[in-house]
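Methods: holo model generation. Sequences were used as deposited, without trimming of termini or removal of tags, and paired with ligand SMILES retrieved from the corresponding compound records. Each pair was processed once, and we did not select among multiple samples. The sequence and adenosine-5'-diphosphate SMILES for this entry were:
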Amino acid sequence: MRTAYSVETVRAAERELMARLPEGALMQRAAAGLAAACADVLGRVYGSRVVLLVGSGDNGGDALYAGARLARRGAGVSAVLLAPERAHGGGLAALRRAGGRVVGADGGGAEAVVGRADLVVDGIVGIGGTGGLRPNAVPLADAVERSRAVVVAVDLPSGVDADTGEVRGRALRADLTVTFGTHKPGLLVDPAREYAGSVRLVDIGLELPASAELEALQHADVARMLPVPAAESDKYRRGVVGIAAGSARYPGAAVLAVAGALRGGAGAVRYVGPAGQAVIARFPETLVSDGGPKHAGRVQSWVVGPGAGDDAATVAEVLAAEVPVLIDADGLRLAEASAVRARRAPTVMTPHAGEAAALLGVEREEVEGGRLAAVRELAGRYGATVLLKGSTTLIASAGGAAVRVNPTGTSWLATAGSGDVLSGLAGSLLAAGLPAVDAASAAAYLHGLAGRFAADGAPAGAHDVAEEIAGAWRSVVRA
Ligand SMILES: NC(=O)C1=CN([C@@H]2O[C@H](COP(=O)(O)OP(=O)(O)OC[C@H]3O[C@@H](n4cnc5c(N)ncnc54)[C@H](O)[C@@H]3O)[C@@H](O)[C@H]2O)[C@@H](O)CC1
Ligand SMILES: Nc1ncnc2c1ncn2[C@@H]1O[C@H](COP(=O)(O)OP(=O)(O)O)[C@@H](O)[C@H]1O
Ligand SMILES: [K+]
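and the model returned the structure below.
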């Protein structure tokens, strides 16, 4: 499991550690890790041209000390000071001793230096930052974007919000972010994540509490969660998932949800709804029934909503069931909030940003800009586990525990019907007995991998994604 901690927690851990270490030791650890990463990026340090963008705080200090290390190895290092009178004194002295030079930020000279750089180190602002880049940094950011330099961000790309992943205004885009002690939420959540490039974590010895702000599963975590039939299992013990989806208008949604469910480890899939013919034609193993959910026979979980049109009665009937329920797509619009809140068995809701915005009564852009806040708010309001889909898929539980962030997604998944596959897959894992947050996050994980396998660099349809779930599952459990 990878974890991310809030700025407040990082600061507390830093204080505790600094009290036990000689002054400046922590910054030296950070600078050493940063310089090593820069050297890796450069390949050859000697003779390379490095430009440091240095802000007023310790983030700039890290950049200056790392720059000094690179200068000692023969790099030509120039520091652009955005707030010359407040630049880190010790770092500046170290850089000068190592032969580095200082360039003023104003007057165009700095932009010219950036234009010639092989490597730009972004030490403008780190966890002490608020809002986007200040106006005097914007021309430099423009120059960086025009240049061919590789950009390494110190701790965070400057201008992004460390705790939320929001980007309010301008921020610097990095190819690599070297972060210290722990990931920060902004490095894992879009839109900020996209500015970070790849992320390298440098251990500086911080001791962090057990409960994190964000968690990202890895193969081993998912492998532990996935159900494996025991020798004595039968289809009922493996779990039966009910799918109430599709309509005359959208029969395909039912087929795709069933496809996801069949690959998700349940022993059987029951289908209720008007798309039975289409479902059975494609998946003869499905148990199709004509009545409503109440007459479908026993299930251990329900998936309701994909392509469901306006069938509010079915949604209400499913919500009244005392088994875990996953609500997706039209189901989200049709579900009575009070009926969701009144449920005692787990509920999982899987909105995309547009559906989340409608549920929250805000604009879609607000959800996309502030995903963490949106997913937490929805989970709290509905007393449900909420999986917010999109460029960063987040899973929050009502209790306010760490939010899970799915690391496997790919934008190739942005194709009609892939959400239906996800809902079936997650519903199947619920039927197999996984806790709601594990079912949702393991499903997102497999779905993301399946999307990558299906696409493999070229467009793929939702049903290709469903086909690849088995391959994703195997790759997870065999890793
Ligand atoms: N505290 C520690 O022990 C360690 C801190 N480290 C570094 O120190 C950083 C935090 O240092 P600071 O607390 O000094 O904070 P920062 O260096 O992140 O920035 C603080 C300063 O930036 C200014 N500022 C705020 N928002 C800005 C914006 N949007 N644009 C431009 N300037 C802005 C503020 O006026 C403030 O003076 C970390 O991100 C990390 O790089 C590392 O050296 C590891 C150890
Ligand atoms: N830019 C993106 N990057 C990664 N995953 C994405 C992106 N856009 C969409 N997805 C994923 O694709 C799936 C689309 O689901 P959804 O929006 O419900 O579409 P549909 O209703 O057509 O099935 C979700 O799993 C979502 O997380
Ligand atoms: K930075």
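The two ends are 15 Å apart (CA to CA).
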